[in-house]
Amino acid sequence: MKIHELAQITGLTAPTIRFYEKEGLIDARHIRREANNYRFYDESVIAHLLMIRRLQSAGFTLAELRELLQARETQDQPRKLELLCRKMEEIDRKQTELRSIQIELNQLHARFLSAREKERQKAGNQS
């Protein structure tokens, strides 16, 4: 399939797909060049790109993705497990931090609402 069809299926843009290829996240087994030098993508690249997108949304950097894909290709299970565990720990830390921030925001929100209500009551008593 051509890049625009692949972009439509995956929800990625054509420049993003080209960027992933340039960065080594999509390798030669997923792409072949036609006589006119157009890229032709194998169907297997769809799942590959969707996996990359999900891993990026989980917080993986391009370098981490490259490393994870390399571990996957070389069947380096201990390295793959280490990378995944490290990211899960990072996500846990971020979730804890976000919960703390949410608590602070809820407290600020409650104080704001309380102050606003007091101002309304005060204005109502002066009328």
From TrEMBL:
InterPro entries: DNA-bd_dom_put_sf, MerR-type_HTH_dom, MerR_fam
SMART domains given in the database record: HTH_MERR (SM00422)
Keywords from the named record: DNA-binding, Transcription, Transcription regulation
One Pfam family named in its UniProt record: MerR_1
Residue ranges of domain HTH merR-type in the record: 1-71
Keyword DNA-binding among UniProt keywords: yes
PROSITE patterns: HTH_MERR_2
SUPFAM superfamilies referenced in this protein's UniProt entry, alphabetically: Putative DNA-binding domain (SSF46955)
PANTHER family reported in the protein's UniProt record: HEAVY METAL-DEPENDENT TRANSCRIPTIONAL REGULATOR HI_0293-RELATED, REDOX-CYCLING DRUG-SENSING TRANSCRIPTIONAL ACTIVATOR SOXR
Protein name: MerR family transcriptional regulator
